[in-house]
Design brief:
Layout (H helix, E strand, L loop, with lengths): L1 H9 L5 H12 L13 H10 L6 E7 L5 E6 L5 E8 L4 E4 L3 E2 L17 E2 L2 H19 L5 E4 L9 H12 L11 E5 L3 H9 L5 E5 L5 H7 L8 H15 L3 E7 L7 H14 L2 E6 L20 H13 L4 E4 L31
Parallel strand pairs: 4-7, 7-8, 8-9, 9-10, 10-11, 11-12
Antiparallel strand pairs: 1-2, 2-3, 3-4, 5-6
Bound molecules: S-adenosyl-L-homocysteine.
Amino acid sequence: MEEVQKLVADLGEKPYRAKQLWEWLWKKSAHSWEAMSDLPKAFRAQLAERTLLRPLVLAEQQKSTDGTIKCAFKTWDGHVVEGVLIPTPTRLTACISSQIGCSLTCTFCATGKLKRIRNLDAQEIVDQVVLINKLAQEHYQQDLSNIVYMGMGEPLLNYANTMRSAERITAPDGLGMGARRITVSTAGIAKMIRKLADDGARFNLALSLHAATDHKRDRIMPINEENSLLDLKDALRYYTRVTGKEVTFEYILLRGFNDSLADAQELVRYASDVHAKVNLIEYNPIDPTATPGTTGSFQRTANEDAVAFMYFLENKGIVARIRQSRGRDIDAACGQLANKNEPALKEGERVMKG
Ligand code: SAH
């Protein structure tokens, strides 16, 4: 708000214009200066000269048979990021992206096959929420109830914009949503998890765990080499101590890789130390043409095995849920976001540790 107030003062306009401008920018995500109809024409012309408006544009949308809507958003510099509206009987959730592409190369994730092009700025992140909220109103006659930073990119590698966007989403003079309705998901960067605690982050934190031993996690998430499970555990314990908040572990069940009861036992050990609850996630195929044994060739765990895994955790006192995938028929489910317009890395360029 201060930036806007200063801009308004610099241009010699009355202070109340700042509030109007702020609302156009952050509440309504106006796409042009002309759209800001209650601002004087001359003022708008001055704004157009001085500053750049860089809104996201909803370029395409696809609706799944289960009601999930996948959106392709175009950035001012011609890239595409994806966001998803996920309706359930009790919630309307927006899944939003934090980066164009991703620098991590998690082997099970389609976005990991893209190069990281750039960070989204805070406004581009907020724009996704505003535009998906419009769809929520159009299709389901309600506002969004939840927001998850689980689209493309790693939010904690775009830390400042993630924080700034969450502030705007929660600010009473922004979108006014409760921080508890926002979840930021990270592949696990220990230093940044501590920073979240130090900076007083109020949203929920989810960690993409997927394996409870370094040996296994190194093989599917190269980022684990510099952020070992022990480092992450220390950081998470610090986070829960400082914030008083619980964290959630996300754990994709990958058949024959991490879904045995021995794996469940490892997970119990790890999760108990952090007091984390566990979301078991169905694996979504990302490349049906991949040959077995290569990257992208994982298979989903059979339902009865997933249920047995969950009961094992529950019996050992870990709160666990199986999360059903949504929007799989339109490639809108977890890990399937990869826009076809960006250059994919060739298989040989990927780092795969054995
Ligand atoms: N970089 C962040 C946020 C994006 S991923 C993170 O790693 O948490 C959001 C969730 O989707 C993560 O838990 C991720 O592991 C999961 N995911 C990725 N690929 C998937 C796939 N093929 N099937 C199911 N879930 C997947």
